[in-house]
Design goal:
Elements (H helix, E strand, L loop, with lengths): L2 H20 L12 E8 L4 E9 L2 E6 L6 E6 L5 E2 L5 E2 L2 E6 L10 E4 L3 H11 L4 H15 L4 E7 L1 H4 L2 E6 L4 E12 L19 E9 L2
Parallel strand pairs: 11-12
Antiparallel strand pairs: 1-7, 1-12, 2-4, 2-10, 3-7, 4-5, 5-6, 8-9, 9-11
Helix pairs in contact: 2-3
Length: 214
Amino acid sequence: MNEKRWRKRAAGLLALLLVLLLSGCWEGAGGGGSAKPVIYLYPQEEEQVTVALAYDGTLTSVYPALQDGGWTVTARPDGTLIDGDGREYYCLFWEGTCRWDYDFSRGFCVAGEDTAVFLEEALAALGLTDREADEFIIYWLPRMEGNAYNLIAFQEADYTDHARLTVSPQPDTMLRVFMAWKALPEPVEIPAQTLTAPAREGFTLVEWGGAEVS
């Protein structure tokens, strides 16, 4: 390979690596980037809430900015969040890269063209409202529907043990929905997950996020 072609290929590889890092989908040894978790807060009455995040990875983007490792906002029952400067938000956002393994021992193999319908049904079973599910689907569907198949597994301790939330006051209900998925050229057999959710009672925290795994 001549020097000019080698430099061109090296530049292309570097650009690809940069895109992967910025998109939160860099894959480490057996792991993947935790892309776009968002957190909603629904107290029963307006009150100040502090949310602290302890993440076993590298944070790449956070909004609004963390103060002393967390967020402190005034939360309203409709989900509106207000910071100390009076700016309104509808959620707390963070993104990071990680290198731990996700659990694909159970899950679903879904044709790309069926992904939207599958996610509507799965997210309802996991306790998300239509609005929350819409935001989840709008973010992930463009990356998934063009694939032949998607292997999907909703994570539990394999996610929450590595992205720990400390909330004050403590929510009565916490719904943390995190989807790990892989694009596949052919379908595979996998034992199906049972998807359930606790009743949304009292002060409720909802989080959704996901990671594309190679």
